[in-house]
Amino acid sequence: MVDIRMRVNGVEEKVDLSPQVSLLDALRGELGLTGTKKGCDQGACGACTVLVDGERINSCLALAVQYDDRDITTVEGLAGEGEAHPLQKAFIRNDGLQCGYCTSGQLCSAVGMLAEHEAGAPSAVTEHLCATDVELSEDEIRERMSGNLCRCGAYNGIVASIKEVAAS
Amino acid sequence: MKTFAYLSAPDVPSAVRAISTEPGAKFLGGGTNLVDLMREGVEAPDTVIDITRLPLTGVEELPDGGVRIGALVRNSHLAANQLIRSRYPLLSQAILTGASAQLRNMATVGGNLLQRTRCLYFYDSAAACNKREPGSGCDAIGGFNRGNAILGASESCIATHPSDMAVALVALDAVVEVESVRGTRRIPLVDFHRLPGTTPQVETVLEADELITAVELPPLPLAATSRYRKVRDRASYAFALVSVAAALEVEGGVVTGVRIALGGVATKPWRAHEAERVLLGAPATDESFRRAAEAELAPAVGRSQNEFKIELAQRAIVATLRTLLTEGGAA
Ligand SMILES: Cc1cc2nc3c(=O)[nH]c(=O)nc-3n(C[C@H](O)[C@H](O)[C@H](O)COP(=O)(O)OP(=O)(O)OC[C@H]3O[C@@H](n4cnc5c(N)ncnc54)[C@H](O)[C@@H]3O)c2cc1C
Ligand code: SF4
Ligand code: FES
Ligand code: FES
């Protein structure tokens, strides 16, 4: 067993866990933060997406011990004091979800994606790789969000929501 | 997942010392391949040495104009680096077509080079697989082999090396720097991965106790005009059926410099030496491109489900070179 400090959504907790435990299982099982979902447990769906120091990762392929003392944000930490995050509101307005299983991953991923875009990162469909002010077209959003599958096919609403928030 | 001991290495000397005294140990980079394979029972290290806290996260310009990339630089950070985007655009593109944004935020340069094949039978512990269990046979030959290799294979193993990044790096004459308690070695990437032969379980020339510390790119002006093209079953988040990394320099209608490497079709990141030989000094035309592609694929062997890759690879080479000629590079 290993003692680690998990700092999630601004709250620090000491947990004692075995090194095999994934960050995903630690969040859900140890901390009871069940907003983050397990779809495939092999990096192929994005349902488990969380933010580490502001960057999106798949928590299912992360060992919890490896993220000792890092700043983790889950879907539970997106909303402000008594108010939903702008992306959460946009998802509701635009039907960005049906069953909701992929939604927490979509939301965390979209937050991370907007930060990457803001920092000037290109994507595989960016025409001029050196450009740092790429317009977030639908193609760009779809490519940058391709790590999040939605079994219900709510993609149109998801893309519309992100586009709306990016433009505001 | 089998239980293991975990330790986190604060610096390179302690990382290489730890692995030299723990025969059943493995380094842990982003974990996107190792954790997956441990969960499947394909990898079962006794000790996992976390190297993500090592100070090997820089991308630095070298005095000769080349670039040194730390082994722990995350794939996303490398792809977004302006030096790479402007001088070696095919490398940024190759990385950006691989996996997903979340995985690229985790994956490291060293781990990417050492990621293992996605051959279906390698993952399936009930199947015969010489790579996973030497001497057990190869269920891919005669089985589901649509994703498998047509170049560099043997009767023991026809698995492809799945990396996109490594294909771009091998086109760029990258050099891998490794360290162990015995000192430092520099290995050209083109010699780093091994063909399967009769020992497909031995995938690289890296010793079990060696740590990849950096990858160096030589200065290569022609790389400014380069592209990576990936053909796959869906537009994103899928491994390559065929990919082409290419750089082209043309003067007075004649090819004066060219680099080509292939992914998705070979047992290692495949430098297309034969195609380059045919093209150098030849007129920069579709006919030359086609001749070069045919020469490279001449030794290809198709299996029950992947014969189509032979023609697809040739067309992808021609199309990539034609785009470089007419539209220039991706930067
Ligand atoms: C769903 C999915 C889709 C993917 N799609 C693609 C794709 O389209 N294209 C593509 O190219 N890749 C793809 N990948 C693979 C991904 O790129 C690799 O898993 C990743 O690059 C591995 O890097 P890592 O740091 O996570 O390696 P790890 O999993 O940490 O390590 C991999 C291996 O390298 C060893 N290692 C790591 N670093 C070092 C070092 N510095 N020195 C010595 N040994 C070391 C480890 O011991 C281990 O054996 C995909 C992965 C997933 C899960
Ligand atoms: S091709 Fe290689 S990895 Fe795949 S089953 Fe055969 S031996 Fe195993
Ligand atoms: S549960 Fe992590 S990617 Fe599917
Ligand atoms: S809303 Fe059901 S999986 Fe996306």
| Beta strands of chain A, count | 5
Could you name the ranges of chain A where pLDDT drops below 50 across 5 or more consecutive residues?
none
The percent range for strand residues of chain A is: 5-15%
Q: Determine the most extensive contact between two protein chains.
A: A-B, 40 and 40 residues
Large-scale geometry of chain A: globular
The first-level CATH class of the domain at 223-326 in chain B is given as: Alpha Beta
Tell me the series of helices and strands of chain A, N- to C-terminal: EEHEEEHHHH
CATH architecture of the largest domain in chain A: Orthogonal Bundle
The low-confidence runs of chain B, each spanning 5 or more residues with pLDDT under 50, are none
Q: How would you describe this protein?
A:
- The complex is a heterodimer of chains A (168) and B (331).
- Chain A has 168 residues and is α+β, with helices and mostly antiparallel strands.
- Chain A folds into two domains: 76 residues, Beta-grasp domain (Ubiquitin-like (UB roll), Roll), CATH 3.10.20.30; 82 residues, DNA polymerase, domain 1 (Orthogonal Bundle).
- In chain A, 31% of the residues lie in helices and 15% in strands.
- In chain A, strand 1 and strand 2 form a beta hairpin.
- Chain A is globular, with a radius of gyration of 16 Å.
- In chain A, 46% of the residues are buried.
- Chain B is of the alpha+beta class and 331 residues long.
- In chain B, 30% of the residues lie in helices and 20% in strands.
- The longest helix of chain B has 20 residues.
- In chain B, helix 5 packs antiparallel against helix 9 and helix 11 packs antiparallel against helix 12.
- Among the domains of chain B are: 52 residues, Uridine Diphospho-n-acetylenolpyruvylglucosamine Reductase, domain 2 (2-Layer Sandwich); 104 residues, Enolase-like, domain 1, CATH 3.30.390.50.
- In chain B, the strands form three sheets. In chain B, strands 4-5-8-6-7 form a five-stranded antiparallel β-sheet.
- Chains A and B meet through strand 4, helix 3 and helix 4 of A and strand 1, helix 2, helix 3, helix 4 and helix 5 of B.
- Bound molecules: flavin-adenine dinucleotide, iron/sulfur cluster and FE2/S2 (inorganic) cluster (2 copies).
- The site of one FE2/S2 (inorganic) cluster has 12 residues of chain A, from loops.
